[in-house]
Amino acid sequence: MLSQSLKKLGDRHTKLSLRTVLIIPFILQILAVVSLTGYLSFRNGQQAVNNIAVQLLTEISHRVQQNLENFLATPHKVNQNNANIIKLGQLDVKDSNILERYFFDQLQVFNGVSLIGFANPNKEFISAERFPDSSSTIRVSGKLTNYHLRTYTTNIQGKRTGISDSGQPYDPERRNWYNKAIKDRQQIWSEIYPHNSGIALYIAASQPIYNQQGNLQGVLLSNLNLSKIGDFLNKLNIGKTGISFVIERQSGNLIATSTNEKPFRFNKLKHKLAENKIKAFLVIESNDKKTQATAKYLATKFGKFNSITSQQQLDFSINGKRHFIQVLPFQEKRGIDWLIVVVVPEDDFMSEINANTRTTIVLCILALIVAVAVGILILRWIIQPILALKQSAFALAQGEWEKRIEIKHSDELGELAKSFNSMADQLQITFADMQDLNKTLLQSETRLKQFLDAVPVAISINDPGGEIYYNNRAVQKLISVDLLPSIEREEIAEYYQIYLAGTDQLYPTDELPTVYSFAGETVHVDNMEFRHPNKTIPVEVLSTPIFDESGKVIYALTVCIDITERKKAEKILTDYNSILAHQVAERTLELEREIAERKQAEQALIESETRFRLLAEATFEAIAITEKGILVDTNQAYTEMFGYESSEVIGMRVMDFTAPEYREQVMQKMLSGDEGVYETVCLCKDRTTFPAEIRARVMSYRGRTIRMAAIQDITSRKQAEQATVLAERNRLAQEIHDTLAQTFAVVIIHLDTASRKLTTDIEVAQVLIKAGRDLAHSGLTEARRSIKALRSQFLEEGDLCHALKRFITQMFSPTNTHIVCQVVGEIYPLFPDVENNLLRIGQEALTNAFKYAQAREIQIELTYQENQCSLRIKDDGDGFDLSSVSIVNSFGLLIMSERAEHIGAKLTVQSSPGKGTEVVVTINDTNP
């Protein structure tokens, strides 16, 4: 392989001129040296820039980190100092005047802190605060301010001079800095939140304090204004146009930036609370293009900011200009998890280096031009005699024998030119003799090959040793492999894939036509095939021997004719006559049978459609045929049932005839291809509704998929069912009275007797107690069986609102739970079953709120509208995760769901941990 590659390279070089071979390598060497010099200069500059950028970014990011650590350590030092003073008894947290004065004095000492305060478990709060304009205030919330956060202006001594804001209701217990500190029982950082006045974003350092008995005294608070971090970053010298900013890793919000951009945005909508006027925003939404582009690059590279867990040194392009990035995670054990990002453009470092690089490139180009010019002049002086020798040699090769070389040099080239001229004279004489002889021989050989190649059959000439003397072009088309110059006789059939026609047997070696020819015989066969991977070629072969002057066979001439088309024609002709008559007879019978069957099918279809139309019109049920949810046909009963004319319903959607709250149910049935029986509520043209039973079936009709539905109005059946349930409930009430009352009376008698026998006859007492227990079990079983059919006693003396109030009074009067119950709209009577199930659902929701959620306040809202009634129960209890609770596994939720489904109501449950639970039951068509 290596020798072949070198040969190809040498052949390629021989095609190049001597001038090119000498000049181009010379120029390439000079160009390579100059280019390498320029590249190394540029590369060294780039490396220097990278090193400087890394050092600068590292220095700046660590400087930001150190200052952040010092800045964030101050609030916790203030809290710890105050906690120590309180623990020593030097500061009384119950004396608000002393706290107010002390906090104000501390605020003057610690300039970086914006607010110092204290909140106790009684929802009382006091603080001293410094605003961005350097003004100081006292902020108080407690009983005296009706738990509103009141703001007082102060003089330079910290004395109150007036009220600047009466404030809004303020409860420290609802604040993150208060709850989190108590929960963790240590110093913590709060979430970033807007100031009450809506002028800045704060982060709070808080610390709980406890007395010697371990009881909570309150929470100390020290706040920082995030804008001060931005002021520090703005003072840093980050190259010429570099920037630095800080990101909250979990949320991706901007904390601070060295640009003039504030870390918050103003809400355009009006808000009741001033603190809602501003909000934090994502760093990728920054108005500063460089900050935004950097944040988007980091988000794209790492997916999420919390994926950046170690120091990163990166670079990227903004508008085609390279920028260096240094990302440094900044974490503080009390709850800070930020990212420090420093961005510097490469142009801040590259201006002088680029100027030096351009100078180097210009000098290199000048040196290159001078060197190339000198080299070309020298090479031209050397090459000119050689080119003259080349031109003369080329002329001789073209037959221009009279042309001679004229070189005036007396060196080696001059001697070579003289020898070359002498050789040309001798070659001219010899070539003239040979040219006539070769011309005659070439003409004869060429003519013969042309004749043989033009023959459309394969012609091959072989000698007795198996070597090929001649093959025309048709031979290669006949075989599927390359021709071998020589091959053993036994291998011919296998190598060239020669088979006996119509078999899988290789052609016998002893029967090959060439074997007979070398024996002096002429042979003619047509039982030979050449096999290709994708076809087989049958051939007719004629082979004859060729003798020399002594009568010895020296060659075998073999002719092969492709007879593929002839074989095909013979087979087609043979098969065609026998098949044609049979096919004509069969096809004639098939056509007659198909015509008869089609006529019968068409007649049966017409009769079936007529019979179906008569049956559909005669039935009392409404029948509808739909395709893809669109009505294509109905009977008369359908239009009468829904109050439409026959011409109106065709083309309408199925959903147009379904009550809105049941459309999703019907749509699911249709999409699932459900063919069962189900109940729903239908909608008439006049917007009235009625309960209906639907039986549907999907079928294929004339190549189309249609759905046939039979609709029956079951209003009367529903009314009868309700009457039956009411009668059964009264019967069960009487039965339970008769059975349970007697059972419990006997149980009491047994227990009274047993209590008297405990001191005299313990065995009799045990027997009585066992009998009483068995009776109690029996009564409990009977009660469970019957209780579902009983109507609530609360509904016996009034409506649903009255029943709910009685239940609330009975259940919550001895507790501290605050209940708010209100009725919206004018009360009107509901169906008894509806009232009873709504009451049971309300009882279940109220019981869950009190028993499991430990709710402190429960709101009950009963709304009566013209055609709708709804019950809403909302509490502020613990709440739960809906996704982790299955209705099947929660008996309370299952009961409420079943009761709502029983009366055709919609039940909605919304809840989340720590945010309470809301249960809403809505029912339509409530008038009895």
Please explain how this structure is put together.
α2 packs antiparallel against α7 and α18 runs parallel beside α19. The longest helix has 70 residues. The N terminus is likely disordered. The chain is built from 20 helices and 32 strands. The relative contact order is 0.04. Strands 1, 2, 3, 4, 5, 6, 7, 8 and 9 form a 9-stranded antiparallel β-sheet that branches. It has a 6-stranded antiparallel β-sheet with strand order 18-17-22-21-20-19. Strands 11-10-16-15-14 form a 5-stranded antiparallel β-sheet. The protein has 928 residues and is an alpha+beta fold.
Report strand %. 15-25%
Percent helix, as a range, is 40-55%
- What's the overall geometry? flat
Mean pLDDT: 81
Reported for the largest beta sheet, the result is: 9 strands, antiparallel
Provide the structure class.
Answer: alpha+beta
Ends: how far apart?
A: 101 Å
Q: In angstroms, what is the radius of gyration?
A: 53 Å
Number of strands: 32
| Discrete helix count | 20
Pick out the low-confidence regions. Answer: 1-10
Write a brief caption for the model:
By secondary structure, this protein is α+β, with helices and mostly antiparallel strands. Helix content is 46%, strand content 23%. It is flat and about 150 Å long.
Topology, please?
Elements: H1 2-14, H2 18-87, H3 96-109, E1 115-119, E2 125-130, E3 136-141, E4 150-154, E5 160-165, H4 176-184, E6 188-189, E7 193-194, E8 201-210, E9 216-225, H5 227-235, E10 243-248, E11 254-257, E12 265-266, E13 278-279, H6 289-302, E14 312-318, E15 321-332, E16 336-345, H7 347-397, H8 412-454, E17 458-462, E18 468-471, H9 473-478, H10 492-495, E19 498-500, H11 513-518, E20 523-531, E21 536-547, E22 553-562, H12 564-618, E23 622-627, E24 630-634, H13 636-642, H14 646-649, H15 663-672, E25 677-683, E26 689-701, E27 704-713, H16 715-757, H17 762-787, H18 800-812, E28 818-824, H19 832-851, E29 857-864, E30 868-875, H20 891-902, E31 906-911, E32 917-924
Parallel strand pairs: 28-29
Antiparallel strand pairs: 1-2, 1-9, 2-3, 3-4, 4-5, 6-8, 7-8, 8-9, 10-11, 10-16, 12-13, 14-15, 15-16, 17-18, 17-22, 19-20, 20-21, 21-22, 23-24, 23-27, 25-26, 26-27, 29-30, 30-32, 31-32
Helix pairs in contact: 2-7, 7-8, 16-17, 18-19, 19-20
